[in-house]
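Reopening this one. Same input as before:
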Amino acid sequence: MRLVIARCSVDYVGRLTAHLPMAERLLMVKADGSVLVHSDGGSYKPLNWMSPPCRLEEDPQAGVWRVVNKADEKLIITFDEVLHEWAYDLGVDPGLQKDGVEAHLQELLAEHVETFGTGWRLVRREYPTPIGPVDLMCRDADGVHVAVEVKRRGEIDGVEQLTRYLELLNRDTLLAPVRGVFAAQVIKPQARTLAVDRGIDCVTVDYDALRGADDPSARLF
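Same output, byte for byte:
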């Protein structure tokens, strides 16, 4: 983990353009290659970022960072002054411990993988990758590998997490092509929009129905 507090401007050039004028900001460079730009407000989300796989090109003489991804999108950070810089190796993270409902939801979907479609089969739960395990690795009716990320509440962070998994998995010629499914009890509209933009299918799942607690005959509607 590398943290830099600096007075800088930030320009994003890709499918659209965005500009952050000169101001003091926190730049975060993670071991997976991602670069995030934070301010001291605006909640926990970065003002702008570049997800891996990407490369960081530093030009100390010009005072510029260029972060470029495989689609040739660029995050250009222009420095006026570096106020503080710090680096520390956090090591391997054990991963997020899911709450009871989310963990049970994953188990139920593994048992009832046909929820995603006829002819689906489970390859493995907690399929390992260098950046953490994929909740479910499946094959669809056509034999195509599908990585399924399971959340109780589907938000943008979950889509970003699945995107990183897919980028890694699709580098493996024995697995590729691997497509993604984002499964949750509730999926926020922003998360659904981002998932669709990235070619990820969204599936809303009924926890009570999966665990047999929902009696359709008792419904009013």
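So the earlier flakiness isn't reproducible anymore. For the record, The chain has four helices and twelve strands.
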